[in-house]
Automatic annotation (TrEMBL):
Keywords: Lipid metabolism. It comes from Serinicoccus hydrothermalis. GO terms for biological process: lipid metabolic process. This is PNPLA domain-containing protein. The keyword Secreted does not apply. Residues 214-282 form the PNPLA domain. InterPro entries: Acyl_Trfase/lysoPLipase, PNPLA_dom. It holds the Pfam family Patatin.
Length: 446
């Protein structure tokens, strides 16, 4: 039924071939044979976090383009809000430089990526999707809201209506869009045709993989990646229609359970499993850059039973993300992989790397200003022009500071630092722009 429209695991006990097979599948999750090859190329991971993350990542991507990093990437891995931006980078008219020849700037980034993203994030996509559940047309359809979200996204970005398998472009990195497959609780990937010719690939290491089927649009992948439960229902696929091959079950798993999961594959927000979009790239890339626009985990006083349950789920999610970041940073320190990470929590006293002018990078971002940025809502509701400018400027600055300090070898071009939107450089301007940014309204802002 097509839509209408790692933590590293310990090795298996010696002599147990069934477990050895399962662990081999887990160890190469999402990669196939590539996990056994030497590390090569650079990957950019774009986290989830709704439109806040999309805008934060836009600022980072603008700076990475100026430094020649964007044009040298092998892979972009993204979930949820990050997937919104990543899939705009699939625009067929973008002019990507030859990464093997040293890279360069990406032609058309402002017109084809930045401007459409700014227009999209000024729209309220969340409320129409939520209201689909109370309309008669959505009764009895658990995936009604995700289809409405997909339709709203396509209205904003019409070319996303193209079938994933038919999308064609020249050059540029592979784009991996992550969702969470509920049955096995693992990361499901939508990979564009640039990844595996001629059609691309969808699937996970438990259920198997296949070429994207006819009727599965780019916008369906984006919507599935953004379908945060329980507010938005899962995208449902029928594994029989997909023609999945491979995959690995637990040795004692009843066949009827596996068949039921395959028959009704349910996909929700990719950030539920891996909000940093790290797992598809962390075993086989030489450089890993992580832009984290996810929510800042803040202290919270005791509340109701329901509030405590929600808090515990948030703690579990935050703990998994923290473990992944610690693993990655330990790998940086050990020299296993190069790279850098930046986030909404990046410290305000970062300095530019060697060879750059001295002085603070984050002009005007006092603790109270950073606190206001940390409180910006996670939502698919409309963001004002002032909110957009603050988030884009902040992403630009922290990406520059982090990559210069921690991964200067990734820089291909010596570009001066020209932070966008000087009209929100002052602390007072930021505080005014973000005065109401933490509040989520029931019916949306627009």
């Amino acid at each position: 039924m097509l839509p209408a429209h790692l933590h590293p695991h310990p090795g298996p006990p010696p002599g147990d071939p069934a477990l050895a097979q399962l662990e081999a599948a887990r160890a190469t999750a999402h990669h196939g044979p590539s996990a056994r090859r030497p590390r090569r190329g650079a990957a950019l991971c774009l986290s989830g976090g709704g439109f806040r993350a999309s805008l934060f990542h836009l600022g980072a991507v603008r700076r990475l383009d100026e430094l020649g990093v964007l044009g040298s990437l092998r892979t972009i891995s993204a979930v949820s809000g990050g997937a919104v931006l990543a899939n705009l980078l699939l625009h067929p008219e973008l002019e990507w430089p030859d990464a093997d020849a040293g890279g360069g700037r990406v032609g058309g980034l402002e017109e084809l990526v930045a401007q459409p993203l700014l227009a999209l994030t000024r729209r309220n996509l969340r409320t129409p999707a939520l209201l689909s559940k109370v309309r008669p047309s959505g009764w009895g359809r658990p995936d009604a809201s995700v289809h409405v979200l997909a339709d709203e996204l396509e209205r904003a970005i019409p070319w996303w209506g193209t079938d994933l398998r038919e999308h064609r472009r020249t050059g540029g990195p592979v784009v991996l869009t992550g969702a969470t497959e509920i049955g096995y609780g693992v990361s499901w990937l939508f990979a564009d045709p640039h990844s595996v010719g001629p059609r691309g690939r969808v699937g996970d290491h438990r259920l198997g993989h296949a070429a994207p089927p006819p009727g599965l649009r780019l916008v369906d992948a984006v919507a599935a990646s953004c379908a945060y439960p329980p507010f938005l229902g899962p995208l449902e696929l029928d594994g029989a229609d997909l023609g999945l091959t491979g995959g690995s079950a637990e040795p004692d798993e009843p066949e009827e359970v596996r068949a039921a999961i395959r028959r009704r594959i349910q996909l929700v927000d990719g950030g539920v499993y891996d909000n940093l979009a790290l797992e598809p790239v962390w075993t086989d890339h030489a450089t890993v850059l992580v832009s984290d626009g996810g929510a800042v985990f803040r202290g919270q006083a005791a509340g109701s039973v329901l509030a405590r349950l929600w808090r515990l789920l948030s703690i579990a999610s935050s703990g998994g993300q923290t473990a992944r970041l610690r693993w990655l940073r330990a790998s940086f320190a050990a020299g296993t992989v190069a790279g850098a990470t930046w986030s909404l929590e990046s410290p305000a006293d970062l300095r530019r790397g060697t060879g750059a002018p001295s002085g603070p990078v984050l002009d005007g971002y006092a603790p109270e200003v950073l606190g206001a940025i940390h409180r910006v809502r996670t939502d698919l509701d409309a963001f004002s022009a002032q909110e957009q400018m603050v988030l884009c400027r902040y992403g630009y600055l922290v990406a520059d500071a982090s990559i210069r300090r921690h991964s200067p070898q990734a820089i291909r071009l010596d570009a001066p630092l020209r932070p966008p939107h000087p009209q929100v450089a002052a602390a007072s301007d930021v505080m005014t722009a973000l005065r109401d940014s933490g509040r989520i309204t029931a019916l949306g802002r627009r």
